Amino acid sequence: MRTRVKFCGLRRAEDVKLAVSMGVDAIGLVFYAGSKRAVEASQAAELCVHMPAFVTPVGLFVNPTAQQVESVLTQVPLGLLQFHGEEEADFCQSFGVPYIKAVRMRDSERLLHAVSAHPLARGFLVDAFNAQSHGGTGTSFDWSLLPEVDQPIILAGGLGPDNLAQAIAQVQPYAVDVSSSIESVPGVKDADRMRAFLEQVRLADQSNG
After folding, report:
1. Catalytic residues
2. Selecting from 3.20.20.70, 3.20.20.100, 2.30.30.40, 1.10.3720.10, what CATH number does the domain 4-208 have?
3. What is the pLDDT of residue 129?
């Protein structure tokens, strides 16, 4: 099975158009004010214009209020919600939009608990644990911590040229998620790094096929 790819933290139309032309599956839009990659709803709506059918716009939130999520949804045609905080399942399900739940991996129990607590999640994004950050740190974690689960796993955290092939071979994730390693500065993507990342995913899939 082909490994899907999500580019996260895009803020510029030229980056979105380039990512789409390269064949990315999903594009993450950050609605968390504490992030250097945050976008306003009006800005995100303009970016979504450049996402054709079968490229999913994903809205990333961290412990938002229901009003904040609903406000974004009235302006931005998100196909998937991504929750990175301590959100409960009832909250995540309440917006009528499919969602994935992020898990900051400190031990295997964290993922097992999340899977049990979020039975309707469409997948689980696993990232490095950092007490001061909810993602986007550019650091990896010990993939051997990941227990076997039936739900789709989206692998994130410090993926790049030095470890991407190993990550896909070892974890065999449904998808990989990348932000900092394809940037020149936070929120500004680098065309060569984006292209190289996608090519490395394709080569890894061929090797594992």
Report:
1. 8, 127
2. 3.20.20.70
3. 63
